[in-house]
Amino acid sequence: MKENNLILNPEGSLLAYRTTRNTVMVRDTAALREVSRITTASGSPEQDLVYNYAFDHTGNLITTVDGQVRQWDPRTGGQLAHYDATALVPAPIPGDASTVGVGVYPAPNQVTVIVRGHSPVSVVELTTGRVTATVPIGPDVVSAKFDPSGQGGVSYGFMGRSRDSSIVLVARVGGLGGPLPLDPGHWQRELCRVIGKRAFTAEAQAARPVRLPAQPVCPATGR
Questions:
Q1: Which pLDDT band, with edges at 50, 70 and 90, does 202 fall under?
Q2: According to the 3-state scheme, what is the secondary structure of 118-132?
Q3: Are 150 and 109 in contact (CB under 8 A)?
Q4: What is the arithmetic mean of pLDDT over 69-87?
Q5: What is the spatial distance between Cα 113 and Cα 129, in angstroms, rounded to a whole number?
Q6: Of 124, 87, 85, the residue nearest 107 (C-alpha)
Q7: How many other C-beta atoms are found inside a 10 Å radius of the C-beta of residue 182?
C-alpha cells in the first residue's frame, strides 16, 4: 500500500482514509471518533496501487479495486450497490481491471468509467448497472472531470512536447487546446496580471502550501 489519502465528504462532516490494504476508516471530523470501517475484497497484489476511494455526490463512499465498484453508507458501513466496471472493457481483453478508471459523477448513485485506450467515457448508474450517458474522449485520457451540472466534461490529452521540454501540447476532445508553457517566468507574469501589486496578509501567507519570498512577488514596474 503506497497511499493513505485523507478525503472529506461534501459537507465536511466525515473524513475517510485507508488503514490497511483493503480497509477504509471513516471518522467524524468534529471529534475524530470512529464512525465505521469499510472492508472490501483485497484484490490481486498487482492491483494494490489502483485501489481508489472517494465520496460521491450524495456523500456515500465509493471504493474501487480490481474494477469492482462498491457504494457504501459511510455512517453504517453497509454496502449499498456493487458494479463490475470490467464489463465495459471490449475484446480482446475482457475483464482486464488494469485498464479501467472510475471517478465520481455529479448525480446520485452514478460514476464515470474510462476504459484506457478506448472511447467514450461511460456514466453508470450503480444500483442498476445501466449506462446513462457517454462522452467521447481521446485515446490517451485517463481521467475526466464534470461540472456540477454533469453536462460539461473536461478532459485533456498529452499530444507532445518541445525539444527542450519547456512547452507541452495538450488537446481536448474536439481538437481544442494548445501549447502549455512550463516557463516559471511566464507563470509569474500571468499571476501578476491577475493579482497586480496586491500584498499578501500574514493570514494569507500562512495559508500558502509553500513559503512566499520576502521580496514582492510582482515587481512594481510590470504586471
A1: confident
A2: CCCEEEEECCCCEEE
A3: no
A4: 94
A5: 12
A6: 124
A7: 14
C-alpha cell at 117: 485506450
Residue with cell 481508489: 52
- The confidence score (pLDDT) of residue 49 equals 46
Between the CA of residue 148 and those of 14, 106, 107, 120, 122, what are the distances in Å?
A: 21, 6, 8, 20, 17
169 within 8 A of 180, measured Cβ to Cβ: yes
Grade residue 5 by pLDDT with cuts at 50, 70 and 90.
confident
H helices of the chain, in order, are: 184-195, 202-206
Q: Is 24 exposed, middle or buried (0-12, 13-18, 19+ CB in 10 A)?
A: buried
Give CA angle at 171 (149, 62), nearest 5°. Answer: 45
- Least confident piece of the model among 1-5, 20-24, 128-132, 166-170: 1-5
pTM metric for this prediction: 0.64
Return d(Cα 198, Cα 159) in angstroms, integer.
36
